[in-house]
Amino acid sequence: KNYYGGNWASFSFSGLLSWIKEKQQKTEVNDECEDWRKLILENEEVISLNNSDKTIEHVEDFCFDNQDSAEDVEEAGALSKLPPFATSGTEGAAQELEKETIPMENTLPEKAVSSDPASAAEGSETEITSECGSAHNAASGESASPVGKAEAAPSENPAQEPKKITYSQIVREGRRFNIDLVSKLLYSRGLLIDLLIKSNVSRYAEFKNATRVLAFREGKVEQVPCSRADVFNSKQLTMVEKRLLMKFLTFCLEYEQHPEEYQDYESRTFAEFLGTRKLTPSLQHFILHSIAMVSEADCSTLDGIQATRKFLQCLGRYGNTPFLFPLYGQGEIPQCFCRMCAVFGGIYCLRHSVQCLVVDKESGRCKAVLDHFGQRISANYFVVEDSFLSESTCKNVCYRQISRAVLITDQSILKTDSEQQVSILRMPPVERGQPAVCIIELCSSTMTCMKDTYLVHLTCPSTKTAREDLEPVVQKLFNLNTETEKETENEEVGKPRVLWAVYFNMRDSSGIDRSSYDRLPANVYVCSGPDSALGNDCAVRQAETVFQEMFPTEEFCPPPPNPEDTVYDEEEPASEESGLNNATEAKPESSPEEGGSEGAAAVEPEQ
């Protein structure tokens, strides 16, 4: 591949169009070394690998504006987003361009004060948050302000007509888009946030707090109160409902101390359990779809209570919702780990395919790989993403699928005074037997779309093609009429207009047992692509499991050494121009004087 992250990647708009074209044409990669099999010795055998990605299917894209007007339009800006291994000169030019075009914002708040029942361990929050805070604030001596204040946009009348955005504008401003192939949020107390802080990889990324949790009920979208203050300030709930909700949420936080209240319902669904708690239908809907975010049909009582507690425990750490989103998209996360890997000598090769695994016949262990140049690369352990394995190796594997859609719209699904909202909505099944759909709406301050547009991600487990699964939900929430078509139905008036959309199915290879793969050597480890869950816990657990199997006595992702503690030989005194020293000290917003060396540039994030 010529981009980082595989199916975890993010693309500019033009990059995504190229990716769509590649998937629709199903381009095969030609071998540059056609005689690579001649390089295999007599005591060796091979396990062939795929040279094309077969994890993406049913790709369909639609433009709801005049595409002819964009035929001669070029994407603005000559510099594209650079990989982590750029030289200091080109990176400096890229940063200078970004300063002129895209404003940077503060990241995690220094301390989010919350009076909700989920807030815990307040004394330690300042230390935890400061570790994950903005490097810009640390370098400049400024304290990060709460997300709600730092990112407040000028007040605007919700009834005001949205600005007309054309397809040619989207193409021209294509570099302002960072469109994720997989849509996820980070739980503020999830495994990934803990890992980012522990390993100090968090300094290479910035985050924005998700500002709203939404619900779809009785044909309209409404905001769900999350914290205690939100609950008691809510005009949607009666005073009795507020007390009932707070009582139930408090029980979920302490459910282990009161087993008698739920043990009789452990064999029943969470939805049935909620019906016994004297909760009104609207409260049951909020808890089931917007707080626990579980299936109404098959989620057990205990799983539902635990999901509710997880939501509550994540409240108040960085804001009034449990979720964070990385600026510039989810594709930043794998690149952040690449930067840390580069500091310690790791190499990430783009446009460098692998033909096969070379296996020793006597020991049965994999000893090397052959790349497309015929070069043999030896190692003791091999980690292979599932999509690289051939059909013969995966003949006994049964894959699930994920249905995905990405929309560019002209306004939010729930308009408020502030345009800068990051929202999550879990849409209940449109029909019986259909899965619920997770919708994440991103504003321009997440650095994932241009001003006056929103980027909307829809995700659900597949039952059909992505378009068949997700289009009914899109039709309920959005206006799919083109600019030339008249809105004949009243219900279309006021809905956000879709400017462009793409649907595709993605393979979900999570949860597959190793024994399902045929003839896999013991020292070859398989990792999956993205799963359909909202968080990243599955990927973190899998990475740690593989690491511990290879290196059982080593710590997983330990904190890097402090540059001040580095001991140098007398013959080679520490120098401020040392690549490793500067690479370890590098901050995302370091000044030219601090980050001007080539070593520092190797770990600077792309702007």
TrEMBL record:
Pfam families: RAE1_2_domI_C. Residues 75-166, 553-607 are annotated as: Disordered. Gene3D superfamilies: FAD/NAD(P)-binding domain, Guanine Nucleotide Dissociation Inhibitor, domain 1, Guanine Nucleotide Dissociation Inhibitor, domain 2. It is found in: Cytoplasm, Cytosol. Residues 402-532 form the RAE1/2 domain. GO terms for cellular component: cytosol; nucleus; Rab-protein geranylgeranyltransferase complex. One of its GO terms (molecular function) is GDP-dissociation inhibitor activity. The keyword Transferase applies. Coiled coil: none annotated. It comes from the Eukaryota. Belongs to the Rab GDI family. This is RAE2 geranylgeranyltransferase. It comes from Crypturellus undulatus. The gene is Chml.
